[in-house]
Design a protein that fits this description.
The protein has 235 residues and is an all-alpha fold. Helices cover 90% and strands 0% of the residues. About 3% of the residues have low confidence.
Length: 235
C-alpha cells in the first residue's frame, strides 16, 4: 500500500518536471533565435557601416580632389560665410520649396487641361485647314507681296493722301440701291448678250421706240456730259 502511494506521488511530479523542461527548452530556443536575430542585425549594421564608411571615404577623396582644383579660387572664410547665410536663410529656402511644391501641384493639375486645350486647338486648326483658311491666308500673303512690290513709296504716299476719298467712293458704291442696280444690270446683260443681235438700221430704229431705250440713252448722254465737263475743267 505504501508503494502505491509513492508511485501516485511520483507520477505527477515527473509529468510536471517534463512540462517544465519543455517550457525551458522553448525559452532557450526563443532566446537562441533572438540572439541569432540580434547577431544578424549586428552584422547587417556592421556591413552598412562599412559600406557607408567606404562611400564616405570615396566621397571625401573626390571632394578633396575637386577642392584641390579650385583651392586657389575659394577661401575657407567664404565657404563659412556662405554656410552661415544658408543657415540664416533657412526659412526663406523652406518658403521657396513650398512655392515650388505648389507650382508642381499646379502643373500636375493644369497638365490634363492643357493637353485637352492643345487637342482642341489641333482640331480647330485641322478644321480651318480643311475649310481653306490657310490656303486663303497664303493667297492673301501672295496678294500682299504683289501689292507691296508693285507700288513705290510715292504711290503709297499718294494713296495715303487719297485714302479718304477712295473710302467715300467705296462707301457710295456699296449703297443698297447702287448694288441692286449693278446686280440687275449685270444679270440682264448676261441674258441679253446670249441672245442674237440684229444690227440693221430698221432694228435699231425699232429699239428707239422703246421708252426704256430712250431713257437709257438720255441717262448715258447725261453721264457723258458730266464726264466731259470734268475733263474740260482739268479735273
Amino acid at each position: 500500500m505504501d508503494q502505491n502511494v509513492v508511485m501516485d506521488v511520483a507520477g505527477p511530479s515527473l509529468a510536471e518536471l517534463n512540462r517544465k523542461l519543455d517550457l525551458l527548452t522553448a525559452q532557450v530556443q526563443f532566446l537562441t533565435e533572438q540572439a541569432q536575430a540580434a547577431e544578424r542585425q549586428r552584422q547587417e549594421r556592421a556591413e552598412l557601416t562599412g559600406d557607408l564608411m567606404r562611400v564616405g571615404n570615396e566621397a571625401f577623396a573626390i571632394a578633396v580632389e575637386q577642392f584641390e582644383e579650385v583651392q586657389e579660387y575659394v577661401d575657407l572664410a567664404d565657404l563659412l560665410r556662405l554656410l552661415k547665410r544658408l543657415l540664416r536663410n533657412g526659412p526663406t529656402f523652406e518658403k521657396l520649396l513650398d512655392q515650388l511644391e505648389s507650382v508642381v501641384g499646379l502643373v500636375e493639375t493644369v497638365g490634363p487641361l492643357s493637353d485637352e486645350a492643345f487637342a482642341k486647338a489641333v482640331d480647330v486648326l485641322q478644321a480651318a485647314e480643311h475649310k481653306g483658311y490657310f490656303a486663303f491666308a497664303r493667297g492673301g500673303m501672295k496678294i500682299a507681296d504683289n501689292v507691296v512690290t508693285s507700288f513705290t513709296e510715292d504711290d503709297v504716299q499718294k494713296l495715303g493722301d487719297n485714302v479718304v476719298l477712295m473710302l467715300n467712293t467705296v462707301k457710295d458704291m456699296t449703297q443698297p440701291e447702287i448694288l441692286g442696280l449693278v446686280r440687275t444690270v449685270v444679270a440682264q446683260t448676261e441674258t441679253e448678250v446670249a441672245k442674237p443681235v440684229n444690227t440693221s438700221l430698221p432694228a435699231l430704229l425699232g429699239q428707239m421706240r422703246d421708252p426704256n431705250v430712250r431713257r437709257g440713252l438720255a441717262l448715258t448722254m447725261r453721264i457723258l456730259s458730266v464726264v466731259g465737263a470734268q475733263g474740260q475743267n482739268g479735273k
